[in-house]
Amino acid sequence: MSATRWASWVALPLTLALWAGLAAGLNTPLLPGPAQVLEVGWQILASGELAQHLGATLRRVAIAFALAMTLGTLLGLGMGRSRLFNAFCDPLLVLFLNLPALVTIILLYVWFGLVEAAAVLAVVVNKVPNVAVTLREGARALDPRLEQMADVYGFGRWRRLVHVWLPQLFPYWMAATRSGLALIWKIVLVVELLGRSDGVGFQLHMAFQVFDVAAILAWSLAFIAVVQAIEWLVLQPVERRATRWREAGVAHA
Amino acid sequence: MLELAIDGQGAGHPILGRLEARIHPGDRICLLGSSGVGKTTLLNAIAGLDRSMPASMIRRQAGLRIGYLFQEHRLLPWRTLRQNLALVGAAPARIDALLAQVGLQGCADKLPDQLSLGMARRAALARCLAVEPDLLLLDEPFASLDAPRVQELRALIAAVLDARPGMAMLCVTHDPRDAEALANRRWQLVGKPAALVEVRTEAGDPVRDAG
């Protein structure tokens, strides 16, 4: 096995060992060891709490993600293809890009109350500008030569979108998806912490009230595991499928 | 089938000047001219791709179908040849025959990047034919090919033209041999802004007059 392959297996076990050693040495409830965290994790799994709250959080992530990607893609495409639309939207985009997530969440809760719609909307408002900016770059990078081809051969709107644009936008869309999932689930936790009575964020809130560090770590690690599973089981296979054509040229050469 | 009444200067066009000509069914025209004079610009204008060209200056017969062989193949690299041809409207049953016609039998399920330059160009030619064009535009179809491939492609295009007597062709080239092999008319693009001149061949008058 080469050194680079070895190297990627060093940092995590080392951190784990450091953590276990430090926890054993300090012997304080403020830093539980890996075994304790694992035990709490097992408890919330066995009691059904994990499934319930993880489910609530994942549902919010999924809805917010779908809405943010759809709206952000449309906005980004519009801005990338039309200078007028871009000039119109760009100042708003800058405003929303720099608006702290916390402000959006608080304002929407104040205006609409501590309701599910406000929670999801707050996440969407935070994510749409990021998606739009990424997809705008993609729309600007569309190959003009293929546009001419599509013009000559009378491609309609739909055919052009599916067969000419989407394959070119795919890397940008993938980048927006990756950074999107990472961002959205973190914002969802804050939204839950501030105004929902279920979800991982709510559980973290409860654990924070009683300084239950083991529970905080158990919930966080469980969520990280789920996000990583999505990366391996959904994103990477989709990406492999969609970029298979790129290998054609290399194989030929 | 197509009439050029271009007054490029009047329209503020950056490259083309005054061009008046007609293309009739069955015309085989080679368009010669030094590089940078505006040959591709004229082809794009005829294909309706030049936004700075007023539509009234190029009169196309209603429903005119155009097949355009660009300098690069411009096939969608993420679609197979079969899909590429189907996307311009080729009936599924015709695709294999179209590919066979350009010598690409058995390649229907290949991706464009799996083909050599010459093969990809022929695949793009098959896509042109898939729309059953009234007018075939060829932009430097023989560029970057070695001599045997040029011979091959010339013969192929000649065969394609023979099989479609009603189809007109406008082929950009800088090699007079192409004109000899394929054309019955020659256009020369000269000057700045570019003007169009119909060249009389030694064999006699062109088949039809430019005006």
From TrEMBL, chain A:
<dbReference type="GO" id="GO:0005886">
    <property type="term" value="C:plasma membrane"/>
</dbReference>
<keyword id="KW-1003">Cell membrane</keyword>
<dbReference type="InterPro" id="IPR000515">
    <property type="entry name" value="MetI-like"/>
</dbReference>
<dbReference type="GO" id="GO:0055085">
    <property type="term" value="P:transmembrane transport"/>
</dbReference>
<feature type="transmembrane region" description="Helical">
    <location>
        <begin position="206"/>
        <end position="230"/>
    </location>
</feature>
<keyword id="KW-0812">Transmembrane</keyword>
<dbReference type="Pfam" id="PF00528">
    <property type="entry name" value="BPD_transp_1"/>
</dbReference>
<keyword id="KW-1133">Transmembrane helix</keyword>
<feature type="domain" description="ABC transmembrane type-1">
    <location>
        <begin position="54"/>
        <end position="234"/>
    </location>
</feature>
<keyword id="KW-0813">Transport</keyword>
<protein>
    <submittedName>
        <fullName>ABC transporter permease subunit</fullName>
    </submittedName>
</protein>
<comment type="similarity">
    <text>Belongs to the binding-protein-dependent transport system permease family.</text>
</comment>
<dbReference type="InterPro" id="IPR035906">
    <property type="entry name" value="MetI-like_sf"/>
</dbReference>
<feature type="transmembrane region" description="Helical">
    <location>
        <begin position="92"/>
        <end position="112"/>
    </location>
</feature>
<feature type="transmembrane region" description="Helical">
    <location>
        <begin position="61"/>
        <end position="80"/>
    </location>
</feature>
<keyword id="KW-0472">Membrane</keyword>
